[in-house]
Amino acid sequence: MNAQQLSRRLSARKIVAQRLATNLIVHCERAASGRNGKRADPAFWNKTDWRHYLHIACRSPASSRLPALYRDIGEIENTLHEADNNCTLDKEISAMTTTAHSPETIRIRELNDAFRRAPSKHGQLVWTSGISILPFDEQLAIIAKVKGFDDFSPDNDPHGEHDFGSFDFKDEKIFWKIDYYDQNIEYGSEDPADPSQTTRVLTVMLARES
To answer: How far apart, in whole angstroms, are the C-alpha atoms of residue 204 and residue 168?
Structure first.
């Protein structure tokens, strides 16, 4: 597995770990505070509230999945660090730069473009909260701009995969990005050029949410 594939796997695992950790904290805090808004602040929790918090923490599926994820993240980071120390990472980055239009990259770009133009057919579309609270007609306009985006350059698309873009909409800057997961959306895809191994997720957000 080369440096680019390792970096993708590392990014995907970090995204999943962050999402699991955030959901775990939210669920534990809800269990502790209940429906009483006055107890939303942990500073006002009593022993019973903390017991509820720990009860959910110990029994949540995220608690068993997170250690393995963090272990994988550490192992991948160590591998990348060792490659850097051996002066091999720079060579691979250089090779990636010079082969930006390799058959694999072209295939990934084609799949990304097709997915972005019809996300419901080729993967999943995710809104952030900032997008979801906008009026429906503005949401449709933003999606139309994402689907029709073609302002790619070496600056915003250094690998030539068409996996990120940004544009202005009214008074906001909009970001969109494509991430590559496995079929179960648990880990990074082993090969983003192979649709049978990959679930693409298109995330649309306000730039200030990133």
So the answer is: 13
